[in-house]
Design a protein that fits this description.
5-stranded mixed β-sheet, 39% helix, 20% strand, 572 residues, alpha/beta, 19 helices, 5-stranded parallel β-sheet
Amino acid sequence: MERWVLLRKGGDFQAMGAHFGISPRLACLIRNREVVGEDQMERYLNGTIADLYDGMLMRDMDRAVDILREKISEGKKIRVIGDYDIDGVNATYILLEGLERLGAEVDSDIPDRIRDGYGLNIELVERAYREGVDTILTCDNGIAAAEEIACGKRLGMTMIVTDHHEVPYVETDGEKVYQLPPGDAVIDPKRADCGYPFKGLCGAAVAYKLMEALYEASGRDSEELDDLIENVAIATVGDVMDLTDENRIFVREGLAMLGRSRNLGLNALMECTGLDKNHISAYHIGFVLGPCLNAGGRLDTAKRSLALLRAGSRKEAAVLAGDLKALNDSRKEMTEKAVEEACRQIEGGPLEEDKVLVVYLPECHESLAGIVAGRLRERYGRPALVLTDGEREVKGSGRSIEAYHMYEGLNRCAPLLIRFGGHKLAAGLSLERENIPSLRRKLNETCGLGKEDLGEKVVIDMELPFACITEAFVKELELLEPFGKGNTKPVFAARGVRPLNLQILGRNRKVLKMQVEDLGGTRMEALYFGDPEEFRKVLEQKEDGRLSVTFYPGINEYMGRRSLQIVITHCQ
């Protein structure tokens, strides 16, 4: 059941608008995004690379920089070990590029999702040792790898960790005791003793910060690394980080850079997927480029995605881009089948009443568990964990809702798990098959979720009469971009809307086109991309033929003609 909630943030929007040269309505929308005060507003509207925080504020950053400078000068062999997802691949690329440009002897390794599992493992550490590696530098993993880091130390290697995931802890008498791995340097903004002002960076951003600090300490201009900001942007959106504070700057700058990117692999992938380089948005990263880059690690090897980013010729880039697109197309089909099976298990069965969904899909490819969990979360408005059969044990991925901290929920079930890691909204885990019923029971007993936390909550920014929708206002809304988690597209609402002249369009007949008229008598074109039949059913239940709708305004350009229109997102 949907709950519609109207935001009511206070502020002198007239004065804010006048000060920043924007409309009071836009000032209100920015305030709704928890942007408070002139400094935050200035940073939100006009933040640039120059406004990024100093990476040396991170705990152990100075130590990591000193170690790497020494290793480079001594010609020691450095190995970057990343993770197999979009964040890990881009973080690996950033460290490889940054270190190579400084003349380091460096290579990389990325775990195989099926054979190795998530993050660092003993085999990767021992393989590095056998191949003469002096220093292991992790990215997007390592914070939960205390045993593996200790193994590297025993073998005489230098171990540097860069990560952004939650630091593991044990709870003693209600107190959290954090357990850092025994690395020579451990960089993670989520460390309790790290004074870095922004905790929400992805692994690639942490890697970029390390390279930036290393360049400055080495007397090199950190602007030499500016081209890597596009990789930080891709990883930030692809890993679904909040687009607030520094992340907003990274993504806005990175999107602009993608339009003029010199990376042969990214250019080939944009061409292969039919994207216009000059109009790349966060949406295109999240739903087009990102899934292709992730497909390598899901169905083949993430080394293929890294090879694309490091392609040395257009021909090589085109082949790799085509391969990744084909893998992603295959992944889509497999995902749809897995989602259908998961819904069959939930609806009409014992899982239907659970507040935390735990679905066991033994036949599902383990790399798709997170995607399926995300679909279930969207469909049922509840945290969801999808478990699949791995080679040796059951593996799973979870996706959560704002009201539920998934990592902490799993931490309460730690005795039932072989290993787990993640953060508030996403996690990975492995366990023995016989522990699945106990995990489901324990998660639901300890979740603390009430009915008010479940189901979709539609947060409305403001009511907006159709007469206020102008080309100038639609253009001004672009100042809020890039949109994504933590900086969502504004939601407008109108009551008493009369839909007229309904037409079903599209090859799959999934688009509803109509005219809409509000209580003020203003008419406008509208589109609805939900289920046309559901829309009609809601409308038929209204005696006066009027609905309340949420929407986003835009401009439709067709055959040289421009017209205002709205896209309806919800109705009741």
